[in-house]
Amino acid sequence: MIYTSKLPEISLPNSDLASIVLTRAAELGDRPALIDAPSGRTFSYNELATQIRHFSTGLAKRGFNKGDVFAIFMPNAPEYAVAFLGVAAAGGVNTTVNVLYSEQDLLHQLKDSGSRFLLTVPEFLDRALPAAEKSEIEEVFVLGEALAGTTSFGTLLANAGDAPAISINPEHDLVALPYSSGTTGLSKGVMLTHANLIANMILSSHVNSIDENDAMIGVLPFFHIYGMVLILNLAIYRGALLVTMPRFDLLQYLEIVQKHKITQLNLVPPIILALAKHPEVDNFDFSSVKTIGSGAAPLGEDLEQACALRLGCKVYQGYGLTEVAGASHIFSASKESSKPGSVGPVLPNTVSKIIDTETGEELGFDKRGEILIKGPHVMRGYLNNVEATTSTLDTDGWFHTGDIGYVDKDGDFYVVDRVKELIKYKGYQVAPAELEALLLTHSAIADAAVIPSPNEEAGEIPKGFIVLQSPITEQEIVDWVASKVAPYKKIRSIEIVDEIPKAASGKILRRVLVEQERQKHLEN
Fold first, then answer.
1. Among residues 338, 344, 337, 292, which one has the least CA distance to residue 315?
2. According to a count of CB atoms within 10 Å of the terminal CB, is the N or C end of the chain lower?
3. Is the full-model pTM beyond 0.90?
4. Handedness of CA 97, 102, 106, 109 (dihedral sign)
5. Which of 15, 98, 17, 4 is nearest to 328 (CA)?
6. For 422-523, which CATH class?
7. Do 420 and 183 contact (CB within 8 A), yes or no?
8. What is the mean predicted confidence (pLDDT) over 466-494?
């Protein structure tokens, strides 16, 4: 069965990304668009539009042509918007780099993307310069004062702002090339067009609207599709205030919410977990917050409700991937009756279905299978990787997400886990995220991850990695879980750890734990 949006079809503009994002810049004028939280530096909408025009001119004067690739390797700051939209206005392609990348990871992305220029910060030069020297990078730009082997960011702005007009085909021309890590192998460049980003930005804003009366925090990394499209570009497009944070610090985050009267929080489950459980939260004023949106990883039903109750606001979930330029499903915060755990219906102009992972047969209500998506925001494919493209984008245009989920009779979707991360216990399929969500409801548990552990008799058993916030024995945890789940879902091994490895987006890096577990078994 194919599911469509409950909202009417929306007419999308046929234009370039920078023009659409800056639609209201002149109207909003001197209103603040971006504030850098650590320094207080503020960019008004006029200043932002002016700097973007000068940045694209600076690129043009360096021979940066339509289709050329510009790499951004820096933490969240107002200049991220200047660079990203300046490259877009120049007809170029932004390849946004994970700030945690090693020199080798960065080198792979620079080479694979064919980047000509690189923008970074002084703190990252120990990785950026060696990688640039080993790739085809022609010039390294750095925020602040230029150091040896670099050019100051300000140099790109020192011009008359008279960039030549560029003809852009929104449906065809790429504007973003983020890299998706996947579960195995080297990261892959996801080819996203101007039309892809515009579609996701506009369609998403029709579900949960924001406007010039809203204030948001840009703490989720802008190199990640969630931060790039649904926070950075969307906030500017809708005229909201965006306060940027280079890294997450709970106390600083709480201070920003209170100081700037933040109205909308866009988060990932680990931060929602902190807001639901950390005692410091009670010392700050959250009365301005209307809604909290969660994405990038499944959010357990109990945690969603606990956070909403504590902060007195609506918490909703969305679902998406880099390959769909942001979100594909979003729950509406305006609904009177919430459905904790649901990521909501499919976006307008988008269709989705669930198929059996073995047969490919379309499934009906409440049947678990792989989620497929088709819409104007689905990527063109993976750069330089025909095999990966054809294995995920079928001939009918359906994107195969690799995620397991189901849909209820109302057309609201639920995401269970990754196909490749399901634990196969004696032939039964166990979803790690389901057990993780359960573990996080225990008052003694601060954080948790569940992985498959090799077992001679069962094939694999669910093993839990637990971060404690109060004393409890491993056996007590095992028994507690066993009392709440089907026998085949029981956690059969527990390891107490200091922290759970996570990506900058907030996703649990289960593969790190899986590799460690396999190594232990090999050594034994």
1. 292
2. C
3. no
4. negative
5. 4
6. alpha beta
7. yes
8. 92
